[in-house]
Amino acid sequence: xxxxxxxTGASSGLGKDFVRQLDSKYELDxxxxxxxxxxxxKKLADNLKNSKGIVIDADLSKREGVSKVISKLNAExxxxxxxxxxxxxxxxxxxxxxxxxxxxxMIDLNIKALTAMTYGVIxxxxxxxxxxxxxxxxxxxxxxxxxxxxxxKAYVLHFSKALGIELKGKGIDVLAVCPGPVKTEFFKVAxxxxxxxxxxxxxxxxxxxxxxxALQDSEQNKMESVYGIPMKLLKLISRMIxxxxxxxxxxxx
Length: 253
Prior knowledge:
alpha/beta; Rossmann fold; globular
């Protein structure tokens, strides 16, 4: 029975770096890479050194995309040592300015797809396997101008922590990764219609560093991974100061 990792959002950003680092650090027969951009994943698969890259082009915001992956699992019945749900996107802009459809798409991908993938993959995960869910530092408090996105990531954070408790008896660890701004394509997509949040540029970090810490924290069976002092301070502040006071500092005109 082959040992595999499944990584969603594998064509770019954090997902791409998870593919690279899992390939270099762990003994895996295959890494299943899932995203819509097939050619980018093929190129990534060709450059893997230790694992075989399996490219699955699927739109996980649609139920049939998730079903495509689960059907392959049902047919091959591998051991899934890692499930990394990295697929997701955000849009900057006030709730009434952004299109309703793109906000619903955020919910479909960031919440529904992640939940469905997790549910479908768990039966194939043996004791000692890892689930890594990409949340965000935006999950720590409500964010005007990043409203729906922050709410979806709060779901991921709380879902992951509760799931980790539920799965302890099975020996499956769950980690929620809560990065701040990361140097990826994310903000190009996020700011295409909304107003760019310039202050976020001051706190940009490298994707590979976030991934390295996440894997380290996962090995230590932690529930949450927060990279960098600024985001750790944000987490602390969000717990110590009432959110209504913090929200008064936001200006969105």
